[in-house]
């Protein structure tokens, strides 16, 4: 990000925050503590988005927590995100991604899929859907999935002799990238959205944590529809004029280069598949997802797949601290009176679109997409504002809080421009200028938006039949 933009953006949020903290403009509706919590939230969001002086997200989160302690907010509220089951689902689940990358199992799965691909554009795109779904079942870390998939997708387009800046090259790369993101949002442990949203919901007493069955019931249908529509729509919009030029055994040769499966790969596969089965059958055995993740992590360490010294380096602890702070925001807002104030302020704004479920969802979704142009901190600031008011929205308009889960998922994956989506930036960094064309990325982002709106046309009557609108 341009240095001038960084300092202008951060300075504006800093000055706005200081004004709120000193002038207390929202009193008496919001008491002085609530005003000062908003001040620190704005300053912290400025750090999270713009990273002035290279300050990390975890460091910004630590500043936020320290400030709240000084203000007298209860430590149990400030650090509630670190004690929730969501964070203890997230930590071992991130290590699942680590072992997928470390053992080479992720690469093997991807090349195994490519080995069976039909050598046509539809055939290759379909295989990327399968690869994305399988990797999403094995790890919630989209970062890991993108890091695994990107070099393999690059090798794929090179083997297919797809020229740089061509529509065919962009089509294959963008589809592979999108399938690392979208399908996994259909279940709780398929992306980091699951633990984060569950943690935020848990911080609101009227909501509580989200379980796997509830998430699956509302999110799977739209995630599946969007995945299919994005692949089809991307093919229509970026359809290449020429056929693929590739030898029949090209991918088979790449797979053979991996050699036989190692001991660590076999152990990792058995443990992660077992964990997936426990996630899928949680309604039968009632074992919490966090317990399943922790046992799987224990086995990976005991069996030597994860070395003791790798616990310090295997995952991004900076990101983990950021998520812990983010998942505490709902509880902090409740304690400081910010949630009640936000409800009084924001809930009436939904009145013009509350006439029917169709109007509510189809009008709200574009607004969430627009928010992603300015909220690039993984949508966490917007989630922190919206989640605490969901009980009041339900009480006034009859929109069940579960309905918001797929809407949040859809908005988080918005990708009109690469700066909006951190996973696009990760992929572009790995592709080193040899990837998709920016204009193709924007067109693909439009396809994603249209696909999302079309998927909602099917999801809305399904949610109505579930009784999620009253």
UniProtKB/TrEMBL annotation:
GO terms for cellular component: plasma membrane. One of its GO terms (molecular function) is transmembrane transporter activity. It holds the Pfam family Na_sulph_symp. Keywords: Membrane, Transmembrane, Transmembrane helix. This is Anion transporter. It comes from Papillibacter cinnamivorans DSM 12816. The chain crosses the membrane at residues 33-50, 86-105, 172-192, 212-238, 267-284, 290-308, 320-343, 349-371, 378-397, 403-426, 446-464. InterPro entries: DASS-Related_Transporters (IPR051679), SLC13A/DASS (IPR001898). It is a multi-pass membrane protein. It is found in: Membrane.
């Amino acid at each position: 990000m341009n240095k001038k933009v960084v300092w202008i953006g951060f300075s504006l949020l800093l000055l706005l925050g200081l004004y709120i903290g000193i002038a207390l403009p929202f009193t008496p509706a919001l008491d002085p503590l609530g005003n000062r919590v908003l001040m620190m939230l704005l300053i912290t969001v400025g750090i999270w988005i713009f990273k002035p002086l290279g300050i990390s997200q975890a460091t910004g989160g630590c500043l936020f927590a320290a400030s709240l302690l000084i203000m007298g907010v209860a430590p149990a509220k400030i650090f509630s995100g670190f004690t929730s089951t969501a964070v203890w689902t997230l930590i071992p689940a991130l290590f699942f991604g680590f072992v997928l990358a470390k053992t080479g199992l992720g690469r093997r799965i991807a090349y195994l899929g490519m080995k069976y691909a039909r050598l046509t554009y539809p055939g290759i795109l379909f295989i990327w859907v399968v690869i994305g779904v399988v990797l999403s079942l094995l790890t919630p870390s989209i970062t890991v999935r993108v890091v695994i998939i990107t070099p393999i997708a690059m090798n794929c387009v090179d083997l297919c002799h797809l020229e740089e800046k061509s529509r065919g090259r962009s089509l294959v790369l963008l589809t592979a990238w999108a399938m690392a993101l979208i399908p996994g949002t259909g279940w709780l442990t398929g992306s980091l959205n699951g633990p984060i949203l569950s943690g935020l919901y848990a911080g609101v007493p009227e909501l509580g944590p989200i379980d796997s069955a509830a998430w699956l019931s509302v999110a799977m249908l739209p995630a599946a529809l969007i995945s299919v529509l994005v692949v089809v729509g991307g093919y229509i919009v970026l359809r290449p004029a020429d056929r693929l030029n590739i030898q029949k055994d090209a991918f088979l040769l790449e797979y053979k280069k991996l050699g036989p499966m190692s001991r660590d790969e076999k152990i990792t596969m058995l443990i992660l598949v077992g964990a997936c089965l426990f996630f899928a059958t949680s309604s039968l055995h009632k074992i919490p997802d966090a317990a399943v993740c922790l046992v799987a992590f224990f086995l990976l360490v005991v069996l030597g797949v994860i070395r003791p010294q790798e616990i310090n380096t295997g995952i991004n602890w900076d990101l983990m601290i950021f998520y812990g702070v983010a998942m505490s925001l709902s509880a902090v807002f409740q304690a400081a009176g910010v949630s009640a104030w936000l409800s009084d302020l924001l809930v009436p704004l939904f009145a013009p679109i509350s006439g029917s479920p169709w109007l509510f969802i189809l009008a709200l979704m574009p607004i969430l997409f627009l928010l992603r142009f300015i909220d690039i901190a993984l949508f966490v600031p917007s989630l922190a504002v919206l989640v605490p008011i969901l009980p009041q929205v339900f009480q006034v308009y009859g929109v069940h809080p579960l309905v918001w889960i797929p809407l949040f998922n859809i908005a988080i994956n918005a990708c009109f421009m690469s700066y909006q989506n951190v996973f696009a930036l990760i992929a572009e960094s790995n592709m080193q200028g040899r990837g998709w064309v920016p204009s193709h990325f924007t067109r693909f982002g439009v396809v994603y938006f249209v696909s999302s709106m079309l998927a909602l046309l099917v999801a809305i009557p399904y949610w109505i039949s579930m009784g999620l609108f009253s």
